[in-house]
Amino acid sequence: MKRGAVVILPVGSTEAHGPHLPLSTDVVISQEMSERAALKLTERGVEALVLPALAYSVTDFSAEFPGTVSIRKETATMLIRDICASLYKQGAKLVLIANSHLEPEHIASINDAIDAVKQETGRAVVFPDKRKRRWAATLTDEFRRGDCHAGSYETSLVMAAQPRLVREELVESLAPVSISIAEKIREGARTFKEAGGNDAYFGDPRAASREEGEAVYNALSDMIVTSVLESLEREEAP
Questions:
Q1: Which class in CATH covers the domain with range 6-233?
Q2: What would the 3-class secondary structure string for 132-160 be?
Q3: Which pLDDT score, from 0 to 100, does residue 235 have?
Q4: In Å, how far are 20, 179, 185, 190, 234 from 145, measured between CA atoms?
Q5: What is the DSSP string of 30-95?
Q6: Domain regions of the chain by residue span
């Protein structure tokens, strides 16, 4: 930290991801994409550290399913704010949030935390939001459609990172749920079941593969690397 390392904070959630994926799916994905990005940054001469992932946040949409653990938005905001502010006070050159949980209130908690860190320390926290067109264009069709909760997109990512956590014997029995959770949220749905996800998944788990997961991790880690390098360039510009 005293040498001015870049620090990556993986952020996920503890929530239902169908009958075939673990509650820690978002944590697994955030941690893996962060570690791969850190290796790429090191190869480019940028020292990068990866923190243990945050495993809890706002997960109200899946609250009807056992095992889901949700915390208040205010709690999530304060937790992220305190961590990032602490890192800057210790000398971190740059702090980046690597997030894989896309519930709107969760995203809002990240942005609120970033604003609070800026006010407290004068420093900017980098947050590449993969929902943005620039990054979404590098991901899968399922992700861009929005039917990507525990479907092919996330199942492939867990297969590539922690295959032992995927109940592959169940995957073949899961029919596609071709419903965009993103659209349903815009229409007013407040839970997965209201949106039509009666088994806590959207998309097509049967289409998942480790090969797809590897390709997506490459894109996600590139997203982090590009965001870090661009931020460092802005800081060093006269």
A1: alpha beta
A2: CHHHHCCCCHHHHHCCCCCCHHHHHHHHH
A3: 79
A4: 21, 9, 13, 19, 33
A5: HHHHHHHHHHHHHHTT--EEEPPPB--B--GGGTTSTT-BB--HHHHHHHHHHHHHHHHHTT-SEE
A6: 6-233
CB 100, CB 150: distance < 8 Å: no
Q: Are 11 and 53 in contact (CB under 8 A)?
A: yes
C-alpha–C-alpha distance, residues 151 and 143, integer Å: 9
Among 104, 59, 56, which Cα is nearest to 78's? 56
User: Average pLDDT of each block of 10 consecutive residues along the chain (238 residues)?
Assistant: 92 98 98 98 97 98 96 98 97 97 97 98 97 97 96 98 97 96 93 96 98 98 98 82
Give the whole-angstrom CA distance, residue 224 versus residue 141.
20
Q: If you search the block for the tokens 């990507």, which residue do you land on? A: 148
- The model's pTM is 0.96
* Cα 227 from Cα 222, distance rounded (Å): 8
Q: Which residue has the tokens 């209201």?
A: 194
Do 147 and 178 contact (CB within 8 A), yes or no?
yes
At 194, which amino acid appears?
Answer: E
Structure tokens at 207: 């289409």
Q: Which pLDDT score is estimated for 238?
A: 62
CA distances from 187 to 62, 91, 177, 181, 208 (A): 17, 44, 18, 10, 28
Question: How far is residue 185's CA from residue 190's CA, in Å, rounded to a whole number?
Answer: 7
Structure tokens at 63: 């609250």
Tell me which DSSP letter residue 117 carries.
H
